[in-house]
Amino acid sequence: MDLAGRPVADYVEEARRAVAAAVELPAGVRIEWAGQFKYLERARERLKLVVPVTLLIVFLLLYFHTRSIAETAIVLLAVPFSLVGAVWLLWALDYDMSIAVWVGLIALAGLDAETGLIMLLYLKLSFRQWRDSGRLRSFEDLREAIVEGAAQRIRPRLMAVATTMIGLAPVMWSSGTGADVMKRIAAPMVGGLVSSFLLELVIYPAIFATWKRSSMKDGAA
Predict the structure, then answer these.
(1) What are the tens digits of pLDDT across the range 79-93?
(2) CATH class for the domain made up of 40-213
(3) What is the pTM assigned to this prediction?
């Protein structure tokens, strides 16, 4: 949570310096900061374990599904793309990094992995159709095959983003008890979905084309 528009950790750090400069504690006496700051410190320690473990689990699940390190890496590229929109929306709403924001970012990583996997599936299906029909003879053919696969993904991807954002809209406009926490969970997801939708349709096909082009020899896939 924010405190007077400032992160709790920054506020406590400044308060510690002020107390250290103005107060001389007698022997055997110490000051302990409790309340929200104490909960924040505990949550930070847990996040140091939760975030890497979550990313590892996502990586393993993707690898078990694709059986390819290259395809798994392509899918995971959605995560930094989505962070672009998440960070910009957090900045626009003047939200500081908090535990609630981290929860939203973790949820966003799961959503991006799911949608990225579907995009990869569309590209692979189009690529195989062109290859099996004998139409994949040059890089231009490869590009056409990938554009066709990506174009088929636009409508379902748009529907997925729209339905998710419609579901999160009441949270973003909510008020009352717990609303501040829920808004900070929903904000990274809303911003991240927008940027990942745009970048996924532009960056994914380009990376997939570069990967498949390296396997083409003498104009044949």
Answers:
(1) 777 788 888 988 888
(2) mainly alpha
(3) 0.71
- The alpha-carbon radius of gyration of the chain (Å, integer) is 23
Please say whether the beta carbons of 201 and 150 come within 8 A: yes
Q: Count the helix, strand and coil residues of the chain and give each as a percent rounded to the nearest 5.
A: 80, 5, 20
Are 157 and 115 within 8 A, CB to CB?
A: yes
Closest CA to 9 of 91, 98, 95, 87: 98
pLDDT value at position 135? 84
Residue type, 61: L
Q: Six-digit token pair at 1?
A: 């949570």
Beta bridge mates, 7: 2
Tokens of 171: 């949270």
DSSP 2: E
Ranges of each domain in the chain: 40-213
Query: Burial, 174: exposed, middle or buried (Cβ in 10 Å; 0-12, 13-18, 19+)?
Result: middle
